[in-house]
Amino acid sequence: MLYLVGLGLNVDGISKFGLEAVQRCKRVYLENYTVDFPYSVGELAEKIGKKIVLADREKVESLELVDEAKKMDVALLIYGSPLTATTHISLIQECKRLGVRCRAIYNASILDAVAETGLQLYKFGKIASMPEWKKSFTPDSFMKIVQENQSMKAHSLILCDIGLDFQDAMDQLETASQNYNFSLKKIVVCQALGTKKKRILYGDFKELKESRIHNPYCIIIPSKLHFLEKEMLEEIGN
Questions:
Q1: How much is the pTM?
Q2: What separation in angstroms does the CA of 156 have from each of 63, 222, 231?
Q3: How many other C-beta atoms lie within 10 A of the C-beta of residue 76?
Q4: Ranges of each domain in the chain
Q5: Quick count: other Cβ atoms within 10 Å of Cβ 185?
Q6: What is the pLDDT of residues 144-196, one digit of tens each?
Q7: Residues 6 or more apart whose Cβ sits within 8 Å of residue 184
Q8: How far, CA to CA in Å, does 36 sit from each of 21, 32, 92, 144?
Q9: How much is the average pLDDT of 101-130?
Q10: How would DSSP label each residue in 51-69?
Q11: What value does the mean pLDDT take over residues 122-140?
């Protein structure tokens, strides 16, 4: 059987249900290519009491885990909730195709944690992903998603690529906004939500650009605010 186990947002976040499943497994993998972890692999291994093998994108997308799950119980540990990243859906599809049992064990993720900003979840639009730019590769289509969300008066959650430092992300956001003639005003920055290192900042883009923010983090571009959202953000900004 293959278990897709959500770890939640901190090292203590794994559920009792998830921990029991992991402890039954002969092999335990940790998906390590979609997020910058706010804790070490060693801390997690100590918490669950099992040896952890790192699984990169090639390992997961090759579907080797499904072949292993034909013979034994296998767990894939995933930061947040297991199906937040669409890449993991393919594992469930392959299990169904081959008749391998599979179970997703859900947990808290960034998608619900951002509600701590005071922004109402049902007012968020399509999620945007910001990749790390290279010299010859500077994709800025995430800004098109922001524009589309703004046209619907929907907030934009921007998830930043693993390894992308905050300062570089802000530089990319500024360049992309200029390419799309989009005016960056007040934004929200969230660092390590759900952990002791949590920070939520709200203010003008130019002011927050110089902030010292550590991974993992996300950026939110608010749209039209309900008065309760405005009150909450103003409290954060003070």
A1: 0.93
A2: 32, 6, 19
A3: 24
A4: 2-108, 111-237
A5: 11
A6: 999 999 999 999 999 999 999 999 999 999 999 999 999 999 999 999 999 99
A7: 173, 174, 177, 205, 221
A8: 24, 8, 24, 25
A9: 96
A10: --EEE-HHHHHTTHHHHHH
A11: 94
CATH ID of 111-237, from 3.30.565.10, 3.30.870.10, 3.30.950.10, 3.90.226.10:
3.30.950.10
pLDDT-derived band at 238 (thresholds 50, 70, 90) equals low
What is 2-108's CATH topology?
Answer: Cobalt-precorrin-4 Transmethylase; domain 1 (3.40.1010)
Buried b / exposed e across 55-70, counting CB within 10 Å, b at 16+?
beeebbeebebbebbe
Rounded distance, CA 146 to CA 155, Å? 8
Q: List pLDDT tens digits, range 21-49.
A: 999 999 999 999 989 999 999 999 999 99
Nearest alpha carbon to residue 105 among 12, 1, 15: 15
Same fold for the pair 2-108 and 111-237: no
